[in-house]
Design goal:
This protein folds into two domains: about 180 residues, VC0802-like; about 160 residues, Rossmann fold (3-Layer(aba) Sandwich), CATH 3.40.50.150. Helices cover about 25% and strands about 30% of the residues. The protein has eleven helices and 15 strands. A hairpin with a 2-residue loop joins β6 and β7. α5 packs parallel to α6 and α9 runs parallel beside α10. Bound molecules: S-adenosylmethionine.
Amino acid sequence: MQALCEAKIPPMTDLHVEMLKRSTLLVTCPRGWEREARQELRRMLPGATVESLYIGGNIIVQFDEDAGEALRRISDTKTWTIAHVTPVQMRMPIGPGREWLERMQQAAARLGAADTERSFMVAVDRRGDHHFSSHDVVMAVADAFVEGGKPPVDLETPEQVCSVEIFQDLCYMGMNPAEHLLRKELRRMRLWAPGGRPISRAELKLREAIRQFELELPEGARALDLGAAPGGWTRVLAEHAAEVVAVDPGDLDERVESLPNVTHLHCRTEELDPAQIGHFDLLVNDMNMEPQRSAELMCEMAPLLQHGAVAVMTIKFTTRQRSRHVREALAVLERCYGEIEVLRMPHNAKETTAVMRLSEEAQDASV
Ligand SMILES: C[S@@+](CC[C@H](N)C(=O)[O-])C[C@H]1O[C@@H](n2cnc3c(N)ncnc32)[C@H](O)[C@@H]1O
């Protein structure tokens, strides 16, 4: 390989290459599952030092026994969060500039030489910002081993692999038989499917209420959502209703604001003009508000509800006198609603959920 930025390259003695004395494995796991992955590794390798690297989803394991035996154990054990396992034998600090390509090449030459008769490849996993690409590293490091076409390069099924694992300013390298690179099946994956992460914890409350109270909406239903921001409930409602009117002076999450069947009224409930917003099949209220006042607003909205409409209200415990808050809210709600059920659900924290139907008297007075 042509010397890169020759004038700036420090002598090898300045490279701070450290040949690792203990057997060392770099292990990846899904981000957010590092704790579980560390526990799995400690169970399989008692006595090993198991630490997370500062870039999420990466763990370093060091131990005194032979790496081959440890790899066999990891390979044979049913694991949940372990993805890739890569043995490494060398570590060096690096910088972001292209001059580090040649330094990595020089350092790679210190690894045990590749068997020139067995096929070979360089695999690079680069995390961070550098002025070189992963491909640049592959080419530079491969030049430390390949001479006159030997060992033969095989990118599909190599017999030996030089792994280069870069974590911004730290580079690990390992030369291994290909079978020593473990690729395990992930049994525990993301907590949420892509796009399924809740907008807010509140979203789970409404999903629970819908399940628990077996709420159903008629075809083409309209829902009114009071205290909607950031939009967890609105998103759930938008899955069930033809149209959702979301009322909150606060902003909705853009994933909700952009839904075609959501209209956001950027105001307080007290400022609504009932004559302007039509009628609804479902009213929900998650406003941060003293429960009695919140219940009064539920009654003010009752004339907007269709026959048989259901209403859901979170009774917020604004003080420690929880039962007083429930009692006072119910006393107001009973003026307009019947069949009121109050249930504390797992995602309720300092609050409880009331589900009710428009009472017949209120129905007669409305619509
Ligand atoms: C707990 S958050 C609602 C969370 C929402 N249900 C969700 O799933 O993302 C309470 C909301 O009530 C709103 N709020 C408080 N007083 C209000 C009022 N008078 N009118 C409308 N919204 C109000 C707040 O702005 C706040 O966004």
